[in-house]
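Thread: Newbie trying to understand structure tokens

Hi all, I'm a second-year student working on a class project, and my supervisor (Dr. K.) asked me to get a predicted structure for one chain before our next meeting. I've only ever worked with sequences, so writing a 3D structure as a token string is new to me. If someone could post the tokens and maybe explain what I'm looking at, I'd be very grateful. Here's the chain:
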Amino acid sequence: MTSYKQGARGPHQFDCWGLVRDILLNHYHVPDDHIPAFGHVPDRKEELTKCKAQIEHYFRKVSPVEGAIACHVRRGILFHVGVVVPFNGGLAVLHTSNKWGPSIDSLTKFNKLNAAEYYQHDDC
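---
Reply by user tm_fold:
Sure, no problem. This is what the structure looks like when written as tokens:
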């Protein structure tokens, strides 16, 4: 079991990017240099948006598919990330936040929170 901690990169505590990064590294085998730790941006959304721009050439925008990064974007600013995972015979978004801790939400629920965009690594 894990818990949310701002700036944490695991293995027992994660922030939203730390959880996504860990899953992509360990379950989808995305190369480490394609998903840097970005530990310097724990709660600075503008900085998180700049970090997304640094790595998005490794990813392509897709409809929700297993292993895709799920991004909440509002007015061009990245606010939150999760990862699309198989769940109960369908797809859901695994993510963590200060308010709720680790959770799995249906795509419908995740999409309702903010405009959602999905990105899959080119090798997946």
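A couple of things are worth pointing out once you decode it. The first strand starts at residue 3 and ends at 4. The radius of gyration is 13 Å. Feel free to ask follow-ups in this thread.
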